[in-house]
Design a protein that fits this description.
By secondary structure, this protein is of the alpha+beta class. It is built from 6 helices and 3 strands; from the N terminus they run ααααααβββ.
Length: about 220
């Protein structure tokens, strides 16, 4: 009886060992039996479980690259565009102001039938310069004297007419008018009015003063046909 029980236990142990042996043989690879370390490492790399705290893994999306535009660069581009537009507008205006056709020159001035038309006009600006220099040379050091002022004005008028006659065209008559006075903090206003031909006649006037006197000269040039 005892022998039978021991034998039965042995048989059960043999069966268990067979079952266990078959179970391990079914799941294992023959190559893994020879090199178990390689099998464990290969299994460990092939099956990776996510952590419980991280949750299910999601496919990562590629990040979108956005180009950042500077505000100062945008303002500089706007200013450059506005400057180019203004320059183009100015060029268009300049072309519009300067036409391609040449201006028509006026050959003869339209003179009324009753007016004289001398070939040369009286040079009033040149006559004014001559009179101004003459008065500065003659009256720079002269002191005002009422007793001699009449003869002084008469002589100066004759000299001025002779001097202006050298630059006056032919057929012009010259009339010289001079006023001399004392310079005693008084203001003097002189005016003249004439009836003449504005197309041929002309006038020039200048003045001079020193510490004691003032002098005003007016020369009329009247054309005579």
């Amino acid at each position: 009886m005892m022998d039978a029980t021991i034998e039965s236990k042995k048989l059960g142990a043999v069966k268990l060992s067979r079952v266990t042996f078959r179970a391990t043989n079914r799941d294992s690879d023959p190559a893994a039996v020879k090199n178990p370390a390689v099998t464990q490492s290969s299994r460990g790399t092939s099956t990776v479980k996510p952590l419980l705290s991280e949750g299910p893994s999601k496919p990562t999306e590629p990040k979108k690259t956005t180009q950042s535009i500077s505000l100062s660069g945008l303002l500089a581009a706007q200013r450059m565009t506005m400057r180019l537009k203004n320059q183009a507008a100015l060029r268009r205006k300049a072309r519009a102001r300067t036409p391609n056709r040449k201006p028509i020159p006026i050959i003869n001035e339209q003179v009324p039938a009753g007016s004289a038309n001398p070939p040369q006009r009286f040079p009033y600006s040149q006559a004014k310069e001559l009179i101004q220099d003459f008065l500065a040379a003659k009256l720079r050091n002269v002191t005002y004297d009422p007793s001699t002022s009449a003869d002084l004005t008469k002589n100066l008028c004759e000299d001025i007419k002779k001097m202006v006659r050298r630059v006056t065209p032919p057929r012009y008559k010259l009339i010289c008018n001079m006023a001399v006075g004392s310079k005693n903090r008084e203001d003097v206003l002189m005016t003249s009015q004439c009836l003449w031909d504005s197309y041929s006649d002309n006038v020039t006037s200048c003045s001079f003063q020193n510490s004691t006197m003032f002098c005003v000269v007016t020369v009329y040039a009247v054309y005579y046909e």
